[in-house]
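Action item from last meeting closed. Structure (377 res):
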């Protein structure tokens, strides 16, 4: 094995923090080129290998993270069949997007609208074994609590998204948070990945993000960055966290369309919560419902009339359809009421949701939460 080689010779091989590089041999002598990973994991012994004196060099290529980072890209097992193709929304606006003016109709009037909400002191209950406590912070931000751990999903306490004003304060001030054990971020959009908030929350704990998003958070104070592809999972203490697909896109800027996006299924002590992230309606909800036994579904219902005219977020009626296909027990609406990201009024999404749920006989399964008020399930 590789460990049989002298220390001087083993030093030629890549070490943690570097990608593997192929061995280039001056005189192959009929042998195949081998990667260091192949050598290290196979039953080949040192005598079977060409001696390092026959090697030119091993190129060590730095990974795209700081050497100080203890980054861990999770290559976890896939739950069930292979992950389906990404449902990425294109950037082309609708043909009639220019017929309305988002600047004069929504953005400027919002600047003169007084923020609502109090942001008082939250009264977190004592969570018993087998219980889950959910606190909606606002927009897509949630605090999940079990008896043993506290988890934040898409935390955002910012009062501005660049030039878009937050019109409702977070449910409570950030300094009232309990100690946070894990952080989950669904994608890189500014309303879901807020670096200023994450920097204040980071306290040497793990954070989970989709593939391609890690370099946005690795320098904020988290000890490990877990990057997941669709249907990959990672175990964090008592939690099992899986990334699910959605119909959206992950670019933070126009040039970084490589970034992943998705939702999370969090399983703990026989309970399960699904945070959809951002998504338009797509047929993948039925597949998610087949793979996981979802109890509580946190589904977006706002920003369905965006200035670009693209179909990037579910409307309330589509959220009800997705809820039924997920076969979940409780629907918690989110992604409305805080930032005016579309032409629809802030109070329209929950009203439409309740009407649609009543028509389908699901009104008792809808839990419309108040920002900052914990609910134990």
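Sequence:
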């Amino acid at each position: 094995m590789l460990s049989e080689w002298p220390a001087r010779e083993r030093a030629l091989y890549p070490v943690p923090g570097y990608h593997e590089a192929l061995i280039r041999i001056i005189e192959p002598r009929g042998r195949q080129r081998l990667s260091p990973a192949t050598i290290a994991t196979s039953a080949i012994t040192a005598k079977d290998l060409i001696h390092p004196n026959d090697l030119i060099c091993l190129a060590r290529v730095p990974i795209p993270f700081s050497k100080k980072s203890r980054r861990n890209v999770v290559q976890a097992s896939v739950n069930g069949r292979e992950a389906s193709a990404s449902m990425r929304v294109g950037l082309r606006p609708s043909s009639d997007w220019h017929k309305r003016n988002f600047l004069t109709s929504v953005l400027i009037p919002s600047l003169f609208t007084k923020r609502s909400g109090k942001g008082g002191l939250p009264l977190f209950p004592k969570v018993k074994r087998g219980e889950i406590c959910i606190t909606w912070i606002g927009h897509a931000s949630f605090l999940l609590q079990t008896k043993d751990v506290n988890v934040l999903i898409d935390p955002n306490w910012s009062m501005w998204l660049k030039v878009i004003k937050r019109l409702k304060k977070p449910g409570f001030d950030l300094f009232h948070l309990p100690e946070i054990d894990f952080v989950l971020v669904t994608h890189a959009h500014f309303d879901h990945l807020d670096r200023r908030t994450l920097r204040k929350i980071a306290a040497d704990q793990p954070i989970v993000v989709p593939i391609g998003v890690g370099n946005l958070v690795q320098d904020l104070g988290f000890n490990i960055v877990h990057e997941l592809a669709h249907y990959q999972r990672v175990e964090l203490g008592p939690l099992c966290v899986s990334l699910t697909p959605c119909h959206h896109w992950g670019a933070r800027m126009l040039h970084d369309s490589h970034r992943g996006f998705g939702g999370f299924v969090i399983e703990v002590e026989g309970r399960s919560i699904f945070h959809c992230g951002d998504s338009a309606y797509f047929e993948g909800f039925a597949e998610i419902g087949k793979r996981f036994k979802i109890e509580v579904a946190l589904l977006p219902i706002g920003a369905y009339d965006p200035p670009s005219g693209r179909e990037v977020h579910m409307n309330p009626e589509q959220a009800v359809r997705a809820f039924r296909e997920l076969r979940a027990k409780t629907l918690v609406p989110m992604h409305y009421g805080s930032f005016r990201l579309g032409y629809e009024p802030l109070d329209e999404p929950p009203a439409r949701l309740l009407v649609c749920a009543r028509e389908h006989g699901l009104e008792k399964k809808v839990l419309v939460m108040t920002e900052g008020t914990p609910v134990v399930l």
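Note appended to the action item: The chain has two domains: 2-62, 87-376.
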